[in-house]
Every structure is written in C-alpha cells, then in structure tokens.
C-alpha cells in the first residue's frame, strides 16, 4: 500500500510547473522537455524558459526544497535537447508540410504559426530563427514552418544552433548566477521567471520597433 502511494505521488507531476518537473525527472527531464517543446507541436505549452532558469538556480544547492542539480550535465543536456528538438521539428516540417498544423485545433498554436511565418518573412532566415528561440510557442512552430517553407538545411542548422545555445545555456547560467548570489532566491521564483520571460522578449520587441520606424521613415520620404 505504501509503495503504491509513493508511486502515485511520483507520477503526479505538473508538466506546467518547472519545479515539479525537475523534482520528478531531474537533469534528464530538462533535455526531454526542451526536445518536446522545440521539436514536437504538442509540446508548445511546456515551460522552457522557466525550466531552464529554475534548473540553473537549483544547481547552487541554496533552494529550500533541498533539490540540487549538477551544472555541467545540465548544460549539456539542455543544449542537446534544444538543438535536437529544433532539427527534428524542421525535418518534420519538410516532410509533412502544413499538414501537422492544419490538423491542430489550438488557436494559440495557429497564432504562433502566423507569428513565426511573419518573423521569417520580415527579418530573414537568420535573424528570425535566432529571435524565435526567445518567444514561447513561436519557438515551437517556427521549426516546422521553416521546413515547410524550404529554408535551406545549412542555413537553418547554423542559426538554430546559434540561437539554441544562447537560449539554453544563457538562461541556465542566469539562474545559476542569481542563485549563487541571492540566498533563498527560490522564494521569489514566480516573479523572477516572469521578469526573465519579459526580458527574453526585448530582442523581438526592439526588432518590431525598428522595422516600424524604418517603415514610417520610408513612407515619409515617399510623401516628400
């Protein structure tokens, strides 16, 4: 009876909560979640940003939960999951085209696909692929969209690796740095994660502002 209750508690994992995922699956879970979020359309709801940041924080051993992860294996697992997931999503997009998206009834997923296509058209392949890493949902759907739109394999691979390393390693080290410098910082994890997500959107916001400013300038020159 006790064994059954223990097994039940282990299986009761909240996939939307980073700490729950890490408590249940540890470092290996990070790689699996990042692969699913960036490579499989069904993983668009998974908490990639907060998972990376929280995992980095837990490497310091200062969290009240007592859970401690190892930094080096975490960095490797996070990078492998993020890069392999994106490449898998791209290959699925090349083979299945828009079929995968058309079968989904998720309004959020379709909105993400629209934004991903706009990124590719507006900023070009390289910049769009890197920027998409920092936008939830968009980083899931841009990869199959790139495959469906026949973005060259070499171009996609180079820039998804660049963006994937900056995203996965950068957020993990940010969590580690904060956890090392602020005692019991995990008490304030939710507002910190919210700030991290907001900061991750700055590159996209700056690009949108710049493109609109340039468009207004060109329109003004045309009128003049």
UniProtKB/TrEMBL annotation:
Pfam families: VTT_dom. The keyword S-adenosyl-L-methionine does not apply. The chain crosses the membrane at residues 21-46, 71-93, 156-176, 188-209. InterPro entries: DedA-like, VTT_dom. Its main location: membrane. It is a multi-pass membrane protein. GO terms for cellular component: plasma membrane. It is found in: Cell membrane. Keywords: Cell membrane, Membrane, Transmembrane, Transmembrane helix. The keyword Transmembrane applies. Belongs to the DedA family. This is Membrane-associated protein.
């Amino acid at each position: 009876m006790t064994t059954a209750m223990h097994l039940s508690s282990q299986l009761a994992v909240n996939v939307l909560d980073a700490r729950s995922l890490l408590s249940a699956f540890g470092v290996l879970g990070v790689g699996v979640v990042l692969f699913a979020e960036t490579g499989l359309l069904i993983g668009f709801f998974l908490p990639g940003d907060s998972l990376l940041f929280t995992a980095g924080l837990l490497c310091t051993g200062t969290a009240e939960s007592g859970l401690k992860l190892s930094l080096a294996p975490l960095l490797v697992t996070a990078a492998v999951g993020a890069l392999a997931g994106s490449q898998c999503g791209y290959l699925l997009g090349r083979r299945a085209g828009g079929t995968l998206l058309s079968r989904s009834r998720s309004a959020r997923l379709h909105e993400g696909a629209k934004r991903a296509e706009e990124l590719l058209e507006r900023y070009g392949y390289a910049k769009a692929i890197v920027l998409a890493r920092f936008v939830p949902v968009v980083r899931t759907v841009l990869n199959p969209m790139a495959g469906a739109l026949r973005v060259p394999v070499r171009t996609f691979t180079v820039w998804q690796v660049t963006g994937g390393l900056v995203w996965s390693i950068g957020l993990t080290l940010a969590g580690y740095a904060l956890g090392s410098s602020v005692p019991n910082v995990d008490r304030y994890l939710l507002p910190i994660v919210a700030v991290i997500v907001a900061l991750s959107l700055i590159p996209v916001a700056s690009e949108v502002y710049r493109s609109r400013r340039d468009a207004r300038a060109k329109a003004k020159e045309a009128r003049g």
